[in-house]
Target: Si:dkey-85k7.12
Amino acid sequence: RDDTIRHLLQDLGLEQHYPNKLSLKDVLQIDMRSVTDEPAQFLSSLPWLFLKKLMMVNVTARSVKYSCNDEDWSSLDIYNDTFDFLNDQNSSVNPLDIVTALFLCSDGFLQQEMVSKMSMCQFSVPLLLPNSDTQQCMFMLWAMRDIVKKFRPHSLSEQKGFVEERIVHAKLPLVSFVRLGNCNISKSQILNKLLSNPKQYHDTFVHRDMDCGDVPRKISNGLVEMSWYLPCGNKNIDVFPEPVAFANLRGDISAFETQYSFLCQTSTAVFVFFDNLDTNYKLLTNQHANAQFFLVGNRQSKVFNLEQLKRTASEMSLKKNNIILKTNQNDANFVKNLHSTVNYILNNLPNKACLEGMDTIAHELGIQVDEDIKECQKAKKNAHFITEEILDTMQFKQDQLPLQGKIWKDLAKLEKEECRLRKAGDQNIETYKSHLQMKKTELRKQQSKYDISEAMSCFVSALTTSDQERSYFLKWIEKYKEKSQQFSENKEEIAQLDQQISNSSLGIEHFLREMGQLYEAAVSLPENSESHQQMLHLPRLCAQLMLDGFPLELVDGDASNIPLRWVSDVLHYLNFLVQPNNKIIVVTVLGVQSTGKSTLLDTMFGVQFAVSSGRRTRGAFMQLIRVTEDIRKKLGCDCLVVIDTEGLKSPELAKLDDSHEHDNELATLVVGLSDITIINIAMENSTEMKDVLQIVVHAFLRMKEIGKKPKCQFVHQNVADVSAHDKNMRDRKLLLEQLNEMTEAAAKMENKEDYKMFTDVMEYDPETCNWYIPGLWHGNPPMAPVNAGYSEAVYDFKKNMTDIIGKC
Model:
């Protein structure tokens, strides 16, 4: 057994999380580290600094390093032979060791989140994770299941648009890069150049010329990383015309034969880099592999042996095109040769594979698979039991989730009419109210006639398992969502298409919505009824889910209504579960659809709300974020509740007569619930900005009437040049003028003409309440990494938000 890993984990301050794993909740909770900029002065600070930057999708995350101060140096015994104070390697750590250590110390859900964020940064991600402690490696299938990519192959006709697929399901050629013996060519650097557009270089793989990249690896030798090249459909930009996966083995294949064998059996092609083939060349000739081999030799090396290369090529039956030599030419010409070879592979070698199918080969080679753990497999079985028989999503929802159909929508209309009384006419108001109440009671009776369906019974049962199994189960259910989106694209009208999308969508929110209706129907019955008693535990189950980090649907996105009793009782139990630390601050984001609200929330807080049919948030969802003890005093709260809403001015709702009223209702509701409202504006659309501001001003005006004056922050997204202070100052002045005009107009409409200025109804300072965020991507997706300016600007906004929260 090798103790290197334990020594490094101790140095990195991670020993307590091995084997007691770090969870996603641990990383996403708000603590002092997440909102302060103290430099890393100890080795043990580096993993947390990396995680902090990674969760904010900051492309500089792998460049984290610390600097010893004078006190640190004075405490070291420079006369101890085990410490060479002139050797900088003692005060550095290879970025790949930090990544490997964190993956070894994280549970499956944090690993998934890390991989997703690394993929957004265009970092390579672990495919085979080594563990020097057990001498085994782990196939990271579960960790990669959340990666969804959009791309447009050149072979795809323009009429078909683009491909959107989970990367584990994509059947792609895999090209692997490995090394035999010593080699002075940097594989990783060459790979980066191969994957980069000449006009825009990006470090996908860590290489020796990066910060700390030349520090020897301690525990990441044997790591196999993976990345993808995905075309955007533009021949002038794309490096390769078709999608292709790349793998990179860290270390000598003679020391990591298992990983090498795995790549030989799963790859379309394997490129072997070498200086000299004299040592262990038999490794190359002994492989029973599907892959085609390409030998990449360093002709400039003093130990290069041309005769040995010829013998090896003969034994492997390799053609001339399968041998690539780096001579005195510069890297550009060498990369050009490799590029031509990879294009040849894409055009001529049919062998493709998908990640999901590689677990069989992993098992045959004795490689562990992260999905093999008992809780994951039991959860998968439970989820599969619910979804395997679904042939028609709409029919499944009618049969298995009947309570959220027409009856619930009719109930929603009755409840709204009960408040508005618009259709009373000449009737006596009390008589009309009584009539509405009778109709509601009749509909609840109809609901209560339905027994809990088999699917819902299985769903509720799965939620009563252990925390880990429950989380796996919900993830597996959510992964069914893309299968439920197989709808016909040949619709004549957008309205019909949108309805089809809505009807065919099936996610966790639909099951939880059914739970809510089961509960509401049951509690409308006498307390001694059997159905009433059976459903009493459901709010507690949902409250536990909120504690685990899952969102609660506040406003039903389809019926546009709130199940009041259900939401109230869930929050009652949540309050009980977090006592005595139950003081909360509520933050809401409002804005036009598709302006980056959900991405903003994910970057700030790591929250991920349900998105209908992979397109947009529907209704309103709330999610709980824990606040650690070290920052509670500063924030003045124990938890944040973040509310995400569907986009205002939705094109899908624009065709409805009451769409403006719908937006006003939603805005008024969430503003009323909030302590701080973030108004998200896309700078490129000034017309929609005015419409949103008008809606928001009406909401704030109503809050003023009930004695509430919430705080407000404006986030201006896609600002081309955030350094143009003078221009932004003019924009702020113009924005305030517009807000004042709208306040005056809204006040007249509400018969409250005393209010003339926006600051009469809102706490707003043009200098401190406006934030300018640059565009999300640096370049052209799908190969563009997240713009570092975006991450930094959102982080600055998050830090400022802690000050605002503290003043609430």
